[in-house]
Sequence to fold (938 residues):
Amino acid sequence: MKRLIDTFSLRGRIWLMAIGIWMIVAIISLVDFFAHKNTLENLFWHKANTVIQTVAVNLESGEWQDGFLQQALAAGENAPDVAFLYVEDSTAAAVYKLHTEKFAGQLQTFLQNNDMQQRSENLLLIKHPLFFNEVPGGTVIAGFNTQWINARQTERINLTLMIVGGFSLFLFIFTFLMARYVTEPISWATKKIHRYREGKGKSYVRLADGGNGDIFELGRAFNHLADNIDEQMESATQYQNYLEAFFSLSPTPLLITDTVGNIEKANHNASMLFEIEPERLLNSNLQALIGPGNFNVIKNQINESGSDIKGYVGVLPSSSGDQKIVEINLSLLYNSQRVLQNYIISIVNITDNIQTQHEILASQINRAKLDREIQETFLKTREENKRLNTIIQLNQETIEQDSAGKILDMLVSHGKDLIDARECIVFIWEKNQRALIPAKTSPSTKLKQLKTIQSSDGLIWRTFRENQPFIWKNSALEALDYEELGLDKTGKYDLYTAPIGVEEFQYGVIVYIQHAPKAFSVDDLQIIARFARQAGMALNKFFLSQKMKDRNDSLRRLNGELHKTRQKAIKLEKMANLGRLIGGVAHDFNNIIGIIKPNVDLLKMGTANYPDLQKRILIIKDAVDNATGLIRQLFMASRNQQEERISVQPSEFIEQVLEMFRRLMGKKITVETELGENIPRIIADPVQLQQVLMNLAINARDAIAKSGTITFITSLENYAPADSEAPPKPYVRISVKDTGGGISRQNMRRIFEPFFTTKETGKGTGLGLSIVMDIVKSHNGFIDIDTKLGRGTTFHIYIPPAPMPKKKSKPGATVLVVDDEALFRESLQDSLKSLGYNVYQAADGEAALRRVKEKKKIDLAIVDLTMPQLNGIATIRSIQEIAPDMRILLSSGYNDKENLIHEHVNIHGFLPKPYNLEELEDIVKQALSAKQSEPSSS
Fold:
């Protein structure tokens, strides 16, 4: 190798050395680039994991409402590298999306695989599971832009290329200059020396030059150089210029000062660092530039060690407020007599590196803030370190507890051990009683000695009110404190009290008791205060989770009830629409029957001597009565039925409807009767009574699994309701008995509730027994149930007997019939005349008013509701203005009386269509006998 090198000239060796230096620098730069790339990758992964873990912790600490999600995800949304955020619950349903549209494809692919992390060209995807009380509750997914890494790698490449390129240029220039200005002068000097050897120069210094080889050649050259010292000085000046160029072109800020810090020389980068013009920089002092503190530290270190300073880190003063952190390296420059003359100083700005380190440290600090606070306070001795580790473990265990009782148990047992207390008491705040109640003690037998504490001046209430911990010496205890804590007044104690809670959420007070001569220290106060606060945080988390669970259960229940209510409302709306249609049809039929029925009665009266005609007329009358019943059922179905209470014989009524019930029950059900004799009559609406028996029979049929018997029973019984103190009275009892499976005790409590049914969806409305109860109550009656599982059920209906009928008075009055239906008008006129009344007719309201004006004496007007032009209500008002003493009957085929009679129309009765002669006679007589100031309720 040496021989190979010796073959090169001095210029070649310089270029060879320059190439070697350039290769070393290039390799170092390449290694530094890949090391920096790995550092960036690790830093980016760390930042990404820190962000998503922070988001996950925030999501696991509360309920997922819109306001809470925005607050919980703020750490992710504000992170500059986050491309999108996606949160799904335990059912994989998305509950939150942020900027996911652009990355929908990548997100979908990532959701379908089991990887927790995935790196693509420009995106880093990370999954993090969510747990609520150790139960999986969903997943948060974040996408991070890798542009941050790419940008910094590009910056690093550019910087590396710039440094290598700059160094290459500098090395090339320097080598070129060295090759030109060093080797050429040497060659020139050699020539000059050779010329001197030829006798063209002179020197007063001589070296041995009489031999051969490099030594003697150097001596001969030196002798020639001594004779030409001016040429050597010129070469030295040129070499100094080279150093000046190196000083100016250096990328590192450089300063040269005297021993007191005055700046003698500075390069351009130093001017850029201090933001001072070069001229002003040369008139400055190092102390003003780097600050008195840094200057004095450096000066003292030089005085003490007398050596160079390497790697001193300080902060440069700045008027703008932006701090620059720099690394200062200082070299001492001595003269030939070893006297210190100058300082050569290099200053490197490391602010960016420090800030990056601070960011990393800050993220680590945020993750372990509570542990670090405890560590910074108590890392003093080995025993304190051991206690600190115990506290950290207890804090973690406290957070993981799943009940308030376990949290309080830890606070009592472990808290007592932490500060070596003899006794411990936990008082829990009871909001309803406004008092502190003893809940836990150690030893447990002490709990029996304690009582509930209302508001007082004792130390327990003071701790709770002021919400801060206290240490109480024996001298501070009052008689009230001894009583509230169950302490012996002759003993000496040291007490520590602390609130259990966090901020405004207070759950109680914990008391630790130490017996003299032992006492609590300030360290004990700090330790247990944090432990009590941690327990309060755990209680707060537990109660908030419980409230969230209860609220969710309530919302689910309310949502289910709302759904059922909506379904019922839809059914009721359909029933209402159907009812309006049925009511209209029933009204038209009513008008037709209203014409037929009175004429049948008149025919019956006029054919008393013709048995064959009487038989035919009775058949027509029965058919008309059946049609009337059907119309009343239609009115009841349409909710347009006005109650018509008449005298009904229960046994006879059941016999009339029995055949219909047998057809309704089918062939597998046997319908039987046990009808008593001489059963009193009752006042009831036949249609409603039939509805009651129908609903009970249908329920009985549905309760029988395959085949069985339904029995209708009537009797007269003495009865008093179970909740009444009155003595039993006679009631007519109508019973419906079945051989079904019976009713359970649980269903008995709700059996009469509207919409309650045990039948399958779509097979029952749950209104049957509710309607039965309403009808029975409206008849001043009661219902009892006898049932046994597997042995059938009997419904007993108790209705009071009808009073004895009063004697009817004889008619003798003038009646005006107002109706636009001529046939009805004629039929009603004939019926009234047959009853002994004087009758006038009017085809409409205007004709009626003319009749009233013409005839001064009209006792009663029967007015139809629906007439053209002037309707019934308007006609009645006009009649009352002309003849206020006239009695009024309103007539209509719509049987909803309450809605037909206007609140300002003073009428004295209601005549429903159709009617028979007996009903007509009763209604007319009641209207004529009623007081004018008191409308009839018939």
Q: What stands out?
A: The longest strand covers residues 708-719. Confidence is low (pLDDT under 50) at residues 199-208, 931-938. The chain has 29 helices and 27 strands. The radius of gyration is 56 Å.
